[in-house]
Amino acid sequence: GQNIDQPTEMTATEGAIVQINCTYQTSGFNGLFWYQQHAGEAPTFLSYNVLDGLEEKGRFSSFLSRSKGYSYLLLKELQMKDSASYLCAGMNSGGYQKVTFGTGTKLQVIP
Amino acid sequence: DAMVIQNPRYQVTQFGKPVTLSCSQTLNHNVMYWYQQKSSQAPKLLFHYYDKDFNNEADTPDNFQSRRPNTSFCFLDIRSPGLGDAAMYLCATSTRTGESFFGQGTRLTVV
């Protein structure tokens, strides 16, 4: 199985940088995802890491350290529309992809 | 264009009255998932399919069943909905790498 931990809430200022951390413990690992979910809407895909290191996509970057069971999502130049929940999700190894979500980090961006 | 479509967006059902939620996809993905998400909680995996291979989570109540008649369609049947089953139900498909595409969700209210 998998156990995924992330902070429940964070607050950051418009224009700033925020880092959302995620730690995971898994019996088999086949990649880690970050999703964004606005209130009342479905999650949308942000990033996927399976190798160690930083993946950059515009204002969003995601980092993975497999040896430490650790990932973070970095959001730069924060905008008000970035206020949302950010879900860390791990995929197990095996014959089929089973994705387990963390409880999500609710990010509030303030002016 | 929507790629994972859930109908209806909002469903109200009476306590104990069977209800079916539907999901269709145009992505031709082998893997489909049903998640239950309650307010401020992570999506909780109920079932997933790899092609026609069906997998239900150990803690999915017997009250919940699923059907996948073909690649494109998947149904979630709740035989006797209780008040505790009120939630957002999310359908998702995924690629071989596990990137998931979610439908808009069906918000179920039990009265």
Question: Could you give a short description of this structure?
Answer:
Chain A is an all-beta fold and about 110 residues long. Chain A has strands at about 1-5, 10-15, 20-25, 30-35, 45-50, 55, 60-65, 70-75, 85-90, 100, 105-110.
Q: How far is it from the N-terminal to the C-terminal residue of chain B, by CA?
A: 33 Å
Amino- and carboxy-terminal Cα gap of chain A: 40 Å
Most residues in contact, chain pair and counts: A-B, 25 and 27 residues
Q: Can you give the helix content of chain A as a percent range? A: under 10%
Nearest-integer average pLDDT of chain A: 90
- Shape category of chain A: globular
If you average the pLDDT of chain B, what whole number results? Answer: 91
Determine the structural class of chain B based on helices, strands and strand pairing. mainly beta
Uncertain residue ranges of chain B: none
Order of helices and strands of chain B: EEEEEEEEEEE
Tell how many strands the DSSP assignment of chain B holds. Answer: 11
Oligomer: heterodimer
- SSE sequence of chain A, one letter per element: EEEEEEEEEEE
Report Rg of chain B. Answer: 13 Å
